[in-house]
Design brief:
The complex is a heterodimer.
Chain A lengths: L2 H22 L2 H13 L9 H19 L8 H31 L13 H7 L14 H32 L1 H16 L2 H10 L1 H21 L1 H27 L8 H15 L10 H23 L4 H20 L4 H4 L5 E2 L5 E2 L2 E2 L3 H23 L2 H11 L1 H6 L4 H27 L1 E2 L6 H14 L4 H17 L7 H15 L8 H9 L4 H7 L1 H6 L1
Antiparallel strand pairs in A: 1-4, 2-3
Helix pairs in contact in A: 1-3, 1-4, 3-4, 3-6, 4-5, 4-6, 6-7, 9-15, 10-15, 10-18, 10-19, 10-20, 11-12, 11-13, 11-18, 12-18, 15-18, 16-18, 19-20, 19-21
Chain B lengths: L4 H40 L4 H32 L6 H21 L1 E3 L5 E3 H4 L1 H28 L8 H22 L4 E2 L11 E6 L2 E6 H23 L1 H11 L1 H6 L4 H27 L1 E2 L5 H14 L4 H21 L7 H15 L15
Antiparallel strand pairs in B: 1-2, 3-6, 4-5
Helix pairs in contact in B: 2-7, 2-10, 2-11, 2-12, 3-5, 3-6, 3-10, 3-11, 5-10, 7-8, 7-10, 8-10, 11-12, 11-13, 12-13
Classes of the chains: A mainly alpha, B mainly alpha.
Chain lengths: 536, 370
């Protein structure tokens, strides 16, 4: 088989599967809603046809792009051919799919008992809002379905051919060269780039930036209302957790998947010390927070003692098991007298400040901000200390670290228990803010979310943690429609992130400096260009 | 060695602490278990022999499924040194494949020889079972193939944390994709009438009846057959030979003319086939599946693989059986709640990794990884 056909088959199959998948899970509606917000159109009813066309066009465009991207005969003809084949193949698959679901819709069968999001309305939307359901003249249905199918075919072919033209002409061809030349000329003219850099690196600019940030942090919680305080509070708690896990995974390189166990220990010890039921201890907020941090740190230490010598992936699975053990124990009958089992603990204490209640949403926001700032300061100081360098060396190569006289075991333990202490603080604040904590607050997904956010942000990087928390916790909280698709997107994001940009959105400065200085780094090169190794 | 004394002492402190902690903890755990077990058997004598047999039987059935999944983990780990986190999801995909075949065959009615109308699934139960397993196994194999191709292959040379995270991502993605496709509700597996759940042969143990369910016997027999088949494939065929060779040394195998990438793909296909079979069995025997069904068996099967010694195929089989039996007898033997079954499984994982990380039969991994 010649390469254009092969590429076309591959890209076409991928793009058509993506289209069919997002149609079946009714994701089209959500994307269209977001697109509608962008374009400012009304999105409550059916998808406007233009949105559907834009979405399908973008998918087709990218599949055409990928099909024509990497190939030996670097000619216009080959690029166009592979784009055409991609479009034809994807179009034919979508054509057949349209016929099938059109027939299903026309017969009035509701597929939702098997495919739970695949409503007849979705089918109609997929068929460019053509009347395939409520048609009085049943004889016309095949024609309408056929029309929709032909639209799909035509759209795919058009999009992929445009994509392949784009990639041949712009990404590889002369257009890009021309553009690069014009770009370089324009930067030659405006050499303000380095001036800007100098400005940014200036010490006083930094101070000014920090002052602005500080003022914003003080002013914003008072201004933006309780809704935003709630969302940003959640983000802040995840920043706390992220900073803790960042020490364990990002700085010392130990993959811990049961991080939620420490969160749970912090939340539960805080809750049990302050709540009237079941123990009626009624501690004050501050000593209870201290106790929660302490207990979580001790738990980290005790867990770490036996298992930190395990190799990386075993450590991951043991800690995952530990998290599940803790959650199962909390909700079991065995510990119900101690923890109230699945019902959870209620009426947890709220913070006080010098005897006054300090528990409005604004106060909580301040509390979280202060906690985040303190933890950032601690992390920053440790990261740049002897301990931080020891962690870095352990992360890079444990054997070498040991050979250079680093007490690997001690530093791993320190990282784990410090990270656990951060989680304990996060858990205590979380429990106090919600006035409640139960076993379902501490499911495995919390660990995965936190892990996602530090990976997306960039492992070992403090700004990365904050960025990741905003990206993964803040944005989905704002996009409520997106809620059920969030974890799906997380999973895909993790895989794509690992393939395309394993160092994260905001990577740390130091490891990068050291790694890219070397003349040949085969590992990094293959990481940077996954497409090459895939094509090989 | 005088000048090295100081540093070597410093380095050596930690293993001494760990080892002593391990020994102390081990003795305490063991003593506690023996004491509880002794209590249950001799002091309270809560259960008769029939109950123990019942527990052991259900443990064997579930253990057979764990073993099938565990073999998939062990095959992949032996070759790529990574935990294929999405393996549990591959199993559920197989379970859904079987489910839809049964649904379809249940909807088709045929006229039997004596003129009565009956569903195809009951008219031709053997064929229906065959089709269900075929569908489940092949769809799992396909998903395993693409899983490797999309999520793991581009990361072949990356540091080890990177593919692991990618695997976690793939697992989350598949789980949520299944939830969005088929909904969060549990679905009832339709069995052919000859395999109705809750029916079976009754045998007498210590004067009391013990029910050996048809589904259980069927699952156990099928998992044993599949494991024998797998052993034959790995030991006798050219593909198995190539797999073993790749597991031992990738560069040398490549020099011997083995297509390493192909063999890795085939490994994923093979483990997908076994996981798919386990998934259909899971549905037939337990009756309910949803998108989340694969998570716990996945983790536990990994436990089983570690228990038996990772990279070691007979080890995975033994580990699966042992884990199944321990999990089902454990709560009774230690006189604790049955809802702590999962805690026992995870505790076994933690304990095995602490005290004998190389597993029961020893791990079989090449030098390059250690």
């Amino acid at each position: 088989m010649s390469t254009p056909i092969k590429n076309g088959l591959r890209s076409g199959a991928i793009s058509s599967i993506i289209v069919i998948f997002i149609t079946i899970i009714n994701f089209l509606q959500v994307i269209s809603g977001m697109l509608g917000k962008l374009l400012g159109s009304d999105t409550t009813g059916m998808i406007p046809i233009i949105n559907l066309i834009i979405i399908l066009f973008i998918i087709g465009f990218f599949s055409g792009l990928s099909s024509a991207k990497e190939r030996e005969p670097d000619t216009w003809r080959a690029a166009l051919l592979s784009g055409l084949y991609t479009g034809l193949f994807a179009g034919v698959i979508l054509f057949v799919f349209s016929l099938v679901i059109g027939a299903v819709a026309a017969k009035g069968i509701d597929l939702r008992s098997y495919l739970s999001f695949f409503a007849p309305q979705t089918i109609q939307q997929y068929m460019f809002n053509l009347e395939v359901i409520d048609l009085e003249l049943a004889a016309l249905v095949p024609g309408v379905v056929l029309t929709g199918a032909v639209y799909h075919l035509a759209l795919q072919v058009a999009a992929t051919v445009i994509g392949s033209i784009f990639v041949r002409g712009f990404v590889r061809g002369e257009w890009r060269k021309n553009l690069m030349i014009s770009l370089s000329q324009s930067t030659m003219v405006t050499t303000g780039g380095s001036g800007l850099k100098q400005f940014l690196n200036n010490r006083y600019t930094k101070y000014g930036f920090f002052i602005i940030l500080f003022v914003l942090l003080i002013v914003l919680p008072r201004v933006w209302g309780s809704y935003w305080n709630y969302i940003m509070g959640t983000v802040g708690i995840y920043v706390l957790l992220g900073l803790g896990l960042n020490i364990i995974v990002g700085l010392s390189g130990q993959l811990v998947l049961g991080y939620v166990a420490f969160f749970a220990i912090g939340a539960y010890s805080f809750a049990l010390l302050t709540a009237p039921v079941p123990h009626n201890l009624l501690w004050n907020f501050w000593p209870a927070v201290g106790a929660a941090i302490f207990l979580a740190a001790v738990a980290g230490l005790l867990l770490g003692l036996p298992i930190l010598n395990l190799r990386g992936d075993y450590l991951a699975i043991v800690t995952l098991g530990f998290g599940e053990i803790i959650r199962n124990l909390i909700r079991s009958d065995l510990l119900t007298p101690l923890t109230l089992g699945p019902r959870g603990v209620r009426e947890i204490a709220q913070p006080t400040l010098f005897g006054n209640p300090f528990s409005s949403d604004i106060d909580f926001m301040y509390l979280i901000i202060v906690a985040v700032l303190i933890l950032i300061y601690i992390t920053y100081r440790i990261q740049n200390s002897r301990t931080g360098r020891a962690w870095l060396s352990i992360k890079d190569d444990e054997t070498v670290a040991r050979a250079s006289g680093v007490n690997v075991y001690k530093y791993k333990l320190l990282a784990l228990s410090l990270g656990a202490a951060f989680a304990g603080l996060g858990g205590a604040i979380f429990a106090s803010r919600n006035l409640f904590t139960g076993p379902e607050d501490h499911i495995l997904m919390v660990s995965i979310n936190v892990l996602c956010l530090i990976i997306v942000g960039g492992m070992g990087s403090i700004p990365g943690v904050i960025l990741g928390a905003f990206a993964l916790k803040g944005i989905p909280e704002m996009l409520r429609d997106f809620e059920i698709y969030r974890m799906l997107a997380f999973g895909a994001l993790l895989v794509v992130m690992m393939i395309v940009r394993p160092e994260g959105l905001w990577p740390t400065g130091r490891p990068k400096l050291e790694k890219y200085k070397g003349e040949d780094e085969p590992e990094l090169q293959t990481l940077d260009n996954p497409s090459e190794s895939e094509g090989a | 060695m005088n000048q090295n004394n100081k540093t070597s002492k410093k380095v050596r402190v930690s293993p001494v602490i760990t080892r002593s902690i391990r020994i102390v903890v081990g003795i305490i755990v063991l003593a506690w278990m023996v004491w509880r077990f002794y209590n249950v058997i001799f002091v309270t004598a809560e259960y008769g022999a029939d109950t123990w047999v019942r527990f052991a039987f259900s443990g064997l059935i579930i253990g057979g499924m764990y073993a099938l999944i565990a073999v998939g983990y062990t095959l992949v780990y032996g070759i790529l040194f990574m935990i294929n986190f999405a393996h549990g999801e591959v199993m559920v995909i197989g379970a859904f494949g079987g489910y839809f075949v049964f649904e379809l065959l249940n909807a088709i009615t045929v006229t039997a020889a004596d003129g009565t109308e009956m569903a195809f699934i009951n008219a031709q139960p053997v064929l229906a079972l065959f089709l269900a397993f075929l569908a489940g196994m092949s769809i799992s194999a396909v998903s395993g193939f693409f899983l490797e191709k999309i999520a793991y292959r581009p990361l072949r040379t990356a540091p080890r944390l990177v593919p692991l995270i990618s695997a976690i991502g793939a697992s989350i993605f598949l789980q949520n994709a299944l939830q969005l496709l088929f909904g969060p509700q549990r679905r009832d597996y339709i069995n052919p009438e000859i395999l109705t759940r809750g029916t079976g042969w009754t045998i007498q143990i210590a004067g009391k009846p013990v029910l050996l369910t048809y589904t259980g016997v069927f699952s156990l027999a099928l998992s044993i057959i599949l494991m024998v088949a797998l052993a034959l494939v790995v030991q006798k065929t050219k593909m198995g030979k190539a797999m073993r060779s790749v597991a031992q040394d990738k560069p040398t195998s490549a020099l011997m003319g083995i297509g390493v990438d192909n063999i890795i793909s085939q490994t994923f296909v093979l483990s997908g086939v076994l996981a798919g079979a386990a998934g259909v069995m899971w549905g037939i025997h337990n009756g309910l599946i949803n998108y989340y069904t694969g998570f716990l068996p996945g983790i536990k099967a990994f436990t089983a693989a570690v228990l038996g010694g990772i990279g070691n195929i007979p080890g995975a089989m033994v580990g699966g059986m042992v884990l199944g039996i321990v999990e089902s007898i454990g709560p009774a033997a230690l006189a604790i709640d049955f809802q702590l079954k999962d805690v026992i499984a995870f505790s076994i994982l933690v304990l095995v990794l602490i005290f004998r990380p190389q597993g029961i039969l020893g791990e079989a991994l090449s030098e390059e990884k250690l």
